[in-house]
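DM from R.C. (forwarded with permission)

"hey, sorry to bug you on a friday — could you get me a structure for this? deadline for the figure draft is monday and I only need the backbone to look sensible"
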Amino acid sequence: MVLRQEIEDISESVFYITAFSFYRLTVNGEFVFFGPARTARGYARVDEIPLGQYNREGKNEIMIEVNGYYCQSISTVKQPSFVIAELCRGEEVLLCTGRDFEGYRSSRMVQKVQRYSAQRHFGEVWDYRGSELGERVELVAQDLDIKYLPRVAPFPSVERGMTEEYSSVGIFSYDESIDVPRRYSFDITEDWGRYEDDEIEYAPYPWFAKQVTEIKRGGGRLPITLSEGEYALIDMKRVECGFICMETLAHEDSDVVVGFSELCFDEKFAFTAMNARNVVEYLLKGGENAKTMTFEPYTYRYAMVMVKKGSISLSSFGVRRFEYNRSKIIRDITTKDAQLREIYEAAVNTFAHNALDLYMDCPSRERAGWLCDTFFTGRAEYFLTGKSLVEDAFLENYRLYQYCGEYPEGALPMCYPSDVERNHHFIPQWDMWYIIEVKEYLTERNTSIDRELFRKSVYGVLSFLSKYENEEGLLQNLPGWNFVEWSTANEWVQDVNYPTNFLYAEALRCVGELYGESELIEKGNRVAEVTRRKAFDGEVFIDNAILDGEGKLKNTKNSSEAGQYYAILFGNVDIDAPEFSKLKSYVIDGFKTFNTEGRGFVPVNAFIGFYLRICVLMKLGYRDILEKDIKFFFGGMSELTGTLWEYRLDRKDENDESFKSRIQRGSLDHGFASFAAVAIDFIENQ
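My reply, with the result:
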């Protein structure tokens, strides 16, 4: 849908706008903003955008493009689509929806396409062969049950970053025998939201995935002419996040497909194994210049421009960045260590890409606000900016969440705003991390906010969890997706998981400290003491106990590295006490000397085990060990993409044939990883 109107004078004017799902605002053909900031179901955030700087003599064209997906996702809630806007000068309303704007069906953005990912919405196919505006449509007023909120998160930066170079040119050919990876995290059902195959006219991803490419020559400077069957590979030098931009002249009617990826090797384009269909298609009219920009933001370092049909001149390619305004980042480091500097800058890049209207896990596949991730991103935001503006918005969304019977009463969504509750899917441990984050937020980052605003949600979580306490006060057989970290440790969560109970002890203490309830503090300490006594085998902490045939709990021999860090952080463990001397030595050497014979043992993965290790090393003051770990763990990431990743990079396996595919499993730009900046500051200043 496109809303359009002309007006003679917009000096000293402010545009107030909200929409669902997303809008793109342009004035006189110039991009202004993409929004709104996402929030809870039943609410809408209003953007206030000064337009005076765009004023010109004569008519000013105001155009609002709106995409309302109305499907389930993990990046928004599902609710009816709408757009509401007013252009005002002081108290005077110059233009408003429902009175002044003309409505048109979009003639350029093709509607019935494949989904981009299961977590987000639909892919993008653009048809520039017709007029800019489609058929005129009547705008219908809706009786909306929506409550309006101000934007809380700061406005992102939307600067352009264009490249003048291409990396290589080659040819491609279609090979029907190539298997096309599904590239969806789960099956997209009709209820979740999709078009059937026979409804879809353009499906660029499977076409792109079946191409065999051959490099013909190396790089050069744009512009470049490409004919049917030819491609140009673009390298942005680091991962960028924003709207993909391209300027072309079509010498004849042309079909251009652009694939993009966070990482490639050997000057050959390849999608990562991340579950997203990173392809956009453009149908261009012969003889016309086209300045294209994707409607939604994406994430890439490399892009391949393929001419499926026709011939074009590619004059410009790049990104309109959509990221946290870096001018608001006030912290830097003065290290002379080049590798630490590179990792620090990668952490800042990662933060900027993932701290927009809310904290996101990644700016690509999901753009979703996951609990636990946000505990670490919250620390990063406050360290880097001295404020908690994005966290303010993220936590407000959770306060506004309305329970509708999707989970056990009191439990919270594992990410929000989203539709995960429609699958009754939640992570009980993430609810505990919510409490711990709220406590830090209220006592360290935003001490002026009323703690009572959070009472209902945090006590609701404790009420839910208390129903699963056994006779010793430990949580047993928690429902939902029990998550300790991305490793085998997640297979050791029943019947009693000790890392979870250490986390529970901390959650109890946090609520007790927030609301002055000494009983909860005492209960938390008691849970920690019981868990510590039952889990410690004289050398390390065991991960879980299972019920035997007589209904009695019996410890397994499973002991994850991550589990040790849960104990040290939350279990009131004095690591310098003689009884923990072996454990201390293992922490110092990264469990390299730990004898795993006869045990189930797994080292930490990136999330959340390595981040718990960072916290432990900072808590214990092990600066030199932390520096070594940070360089080893993040050094390869920052070098390859300028960002930090979801999974660990096993650099010792770089010569392994499977290395290239294995390191591309998930996002290479994950919000929680910006916490590395905090760790590097500790290294430099302790």
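R.C.: lifesaver. The CA atoms of residues 45 and 149 lie 5 Å apart.
me: no worries. The mean pLDDT is 95.
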